[in-house]
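User: Sequence recovery, please. Input:
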């Protein structure tokens, strides 16, 4: 992927290499105290937890500035993270392969909370997951929905240049690497 931050290395990228640091915040914390906690750690994100109800919400510095400073942050529920947690030493390949579909379907997911020994240490943000999935498409195929749809044409048919309608083509929104698209003559189509 041109301009991608992901390069081919011998060692796989780990979640800890790309996660954004975050602060764990209790649900009854006021917006003012939450902002102070983010400032002390010099981070942009906090993860609101409530042990009783298992409430997990990602809050941003900008959100906290836009609410009553004395209000508890329990009510800020706009940035919903993925319902499962991940560990910092998991590989990015495994996370993307297992969860990219969730992020394509649920546009409101902001990221996945990263925990180590039960404590919030960061967030793997949505844009990094999607960008990494895109870079994987250029090197190997992921099963599941294509990010913008993939265009395939049948360029192997002997008469494809003479056909008045041009070569057969198809746009896929779901790619299965074990069952690549074929033209009406049974020839495997090529991605263009």
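Assistant: Recovered sequence (192 residues):
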């Amino acid at each position: 992927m041109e301009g991608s931050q992901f390069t081919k290395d011998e060692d796989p990228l780990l979640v800890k290499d790309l996660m954004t640091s975050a602060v764990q915040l209790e649900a009854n914390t006021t917006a003012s105290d939450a902002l102070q906690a983010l400032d002390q750690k010099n981070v942009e994100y906090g993860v609101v937890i409530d042990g009783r109800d298992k409430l997990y919400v990602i809050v941003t510095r900008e959100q906290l500035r836009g609410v009553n400073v004395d209000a508890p942050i329990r009510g800020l529920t706009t940035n919903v993270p993925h319902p499962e947690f991940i560990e910092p030493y998991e590989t990015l390949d495994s996370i993307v392969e297992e969860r990219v579909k969730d992020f394509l379907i649920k546009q409101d997911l902001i990221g996945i909370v990263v925990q180590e020994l039960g404590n919030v240490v960061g967030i793997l943000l949505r844009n990094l997951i999607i960008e990494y999935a895109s870079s994987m498409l250029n090197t190997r195929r992921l099963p599941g929905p294509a990010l913008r749809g993939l265009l395939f044409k049948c360029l192997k048919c002997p008469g494809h240049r003479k056909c008045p309608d041009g070569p057969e083509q198809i746009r896929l929104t779901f790619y299965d690497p074990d069952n690549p698209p074929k033209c009406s003559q049974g020839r495997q189509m090529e991605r263009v």
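Helices lie at 15-18, 31-41, 61-65, 92-105, 126-139.
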